[in-house]
Amino acid sequence: MSMNTSEQTLFLLKMRGPQTAQQLAALLDITxxxxxxxxxxxxxxxxxxxxxxxxxxxxxxxxxxxxxxxxARFPDRHADLxxxxxxxxxxxxxxxxxxxxxxxxxxxxxxAYARLVDPGLALAQRVDSLARARDxxxxxxxxxxxxxxxxxxxxxxxxICAAATACQNFCRSELAIFQRVLGDDxxxxxxxxxxxxxxxxxxxxxxxxx
Length: 210
What we know:
This protein is an alpha+beta fold. The protein has helices at residues 5-16, 21-28, 32-44, 68-71, 79-116, 123-136, 161-166, 174-182, and strands at residues 48-54, 60-66, 141-145, 151-155, 186-192, 201-207. Helix 1 packs across helix 3 and helix 5 packs parallel to helix 8 (174-182). The longest helix has 38 residues, at 79-116. The radius of gyration is 20 Å and the shape is globular.
């Protein structure tokens, strides 16, 4: 599916976080003026806003980012139905029933990831396989190897955000699942969390004994 320039602008801000007009122009292969026009049009619609950040040389740099309305352009599919089902499960079966449902989902997810992540591969390759699996589920995920040997698992979108907001237990065990799937030669930490005001969810996977 091809995107027009305005859609590409929003997509880049979603994937990369705050950007200057010059950075976006380079990524979109358009002029800085063209990028500013795109950003101002998106601002008029309430989809983006800017903040001025002081650069090292002292001249402020204008960085553009998605607003809450802009983030909502990447919708959570069937969010209303999901919330209704969660409410119905709690009404019919209580918190215990909802807990059983979440537990079954966790076991299913872990089994699916374990089939895709080869424990014989290097850590960065294992994280990349897990990121690909999460990306296929709609998390807009990718792996970022770091200079210190750790690897970041970055998730720019949460397709179950509405459900997770209504019931945080839906993502209570992701750390534990990722840990078991990736193996015992690393530790998994969450460094950014969408539900605690972060722009995205980021997991830092650190090798043990290096």
